[in-house]
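pasting input
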Amino acid sequence: MADIPSQRITISDVAREAGVSRTTVSHALNGRGQVDPATRLKVEEAARSLGYRPNRHAQRLRTGGASMIALMSSMPFTVSGGPSRLGFFMEVAAVAASSALERGLVMALVPPHRPGQTSLNLLDIDGALVIEPQAGDPQLAELLQQGLPVVSIGRPGGDNVNVPYVDLLSGPATQMLLTHMLAAGARQIGLVVGASERTSYSQAEQAYAAMAAGHGMQPVVLRMDEAEGEDGGHAAAQQLLCEHPELDALLVMVDAFAVGAARYAQQAGLRIPEDLMLATRYDGLRARSCEPPLTALDLHLEDIAQQAVDLLFEHLRGDTTRRMATGPLPALALRRSTQRKPG
Amino acid sequence: MADIPSQRITISDVAREAGVSRTTVSHALNGRGQVDPATRLKVEEAARSLGYRPNRHAQRLRTGGASMIALMSSMPFTVSGGPSRLGFFMEVAAVAASSALERGLVMALVPPHRPGQTSLNLLDIDGALVIEPQAGDPQLAELLQQGLPVVSIGRPGGDNVNVPYVDLLSGPATQMLLTHMLAAGARQIGLVVGASERTSYSQAEQAYAAMAAGHGMQPVVLRMDEAEGEDGGHAAAQQLLCEHPELDALLVMVDAFAVGAARYAQQAGLRIPEDLMLATRYDGLRARSCEPPLTALDLHLEDIAQQAVDLLFEHLRGDTTRRMATGPLPALALRRSTQRKPG
DNA sequence: CAAAATAACCAAATCGATTTGGGCAAAGTA
DNA sequence: TACTTTGCCCAAATCGATTTGGTTATTTTG
């Protein structure tokens, strides 16, 4: 029956119990230096019986090692947080937290916040993962300014050219969605992206332009402020379909927009997919619980997040040679929103 | 153009810059001791200009406290993690992380792990949130044994009677689902719960028993090991429906099981909801992306998580008077799986 | 056999903060 | 005047680990 230790067990206690010096305890427990195997056993036994757990703060203070990373979202609250919180951010978080723990790192979540809160200087981290930062992202800027290692999930926008990143392959991804929609019978596809300057958007636009040129499609693109959330998607669909009644399909890159677009279609009496096909990029809760469920992409975020943590870990260790990683190609998640009844 | 500081700024650097001792810097920056207002300004200015950020490890080592809490899941990997990671756990995580940050606490995610990994002694936290711990939960036991403040989301199972908790109201929740199914035309409802000893299960069973007695329903309950995941739900449905062909509805408390049950129904040629109604407790990704989507409950996890963080915060502060909190009543999330076509 | 290498261990320095226990004027009090 | 209080400041101790730079014995080598 072990008493609850009111005073924490330190290395000195173990040393006393084992009858050796603190140095030897440290060496024995960490496999460093020269220690007689018999002594090592004695130390280990003492540590176990006393319930010794090294004080992480003392360890980190001495060794300078990293212990905490943060995962931050640069998307506005209305897209990344809000009613349906379980999006891209949290999916990455789930995997990244596991991978981080396996490396002895603790991952702190810094969820999207209402405008005007920085709170970054509140927490003291050794590195950070950021998701699809836009050009001139203030959070990213602050992290870099503090000299912290950062890995971006998705190539960072703007002039942050030397921030290491995991490529999300937005060009091929867009191509995949467009190809599918065309094969499924779409004739005129419109594109909706966010208004901020993110690599995924510009790559999508490029892929879309190339595709349109190749298929004799008149390119129709609309950019909408992400902060507008689902309502923004509603408005975007409305504007696009009024100005371009020939459109019979929409590729809406932001899932919150896509849900709004579906709502507009319903209100306008447009059947999905018969009158209007709809697809989005990220296959998350929003895409799946939309009515009808939306065709989207499995981005393999599990691999992506894993790679990002790996990369960040390397940089934390001082090995900054690798500046990029690539995940597997996205895979199509086929749903009703792009499947017209045959005939 | 600030250089990237290769060497971290310490309190000594600030002291030198401001022309005072380290003690005075500490006092000035932390509002302790007696410091001339003019000196304080000088110190603050020096700290700002040098970009000083106190070393968290040194601080914590000295002061003892840590400002980190953990969110842990006691569900097996197959239920809470796995292919569809975005469940109960991550939904709570999203909200709890925000609330924690607002209080200056960092929240670490300790996702469900493969069996045999503790990893708890790896991180040092000063409090934890646990989700629906079962009777004799080893993680909870370890936390308590270390004397750490713990708040449970959902009343803890077994004899952990004095662990403070946020009530998930599983009795009323079950009643709500059963009442709905009966009103929707179900005649004989079977119940599937997890085999572990969790309060939500026993409360569900109680509510079910009472309901059955009141409606002349023969109670049919099956307990399935949670580690079996979706396949377990498949097996449970098979067994239940073979032994009790009179059943025309199932309330499956674990969402992973429910998805498996839906799969079995499809294989057995049972139409949902015409031949078999299906409902589950937690309205998450699994319930929504099931075919057909499953009727479930909005548990108001946002409020629940908020309350849990509040409660834990109080206990961290030493105020242990409040030992329980209650969230709002769950709300029905109606889906096709319980809506028979009229006529 | 003397010199060099190795094994096993330890005392003290170190990491960067906070806290303890003063020191020294200037101001207040008997 | 002498004695206490107050204001402002600092040197050194402290937190609990790791690391540096040794000291002894014990082998190995020339």
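fyi The first helix of chain B runs from residue 11 to 18.
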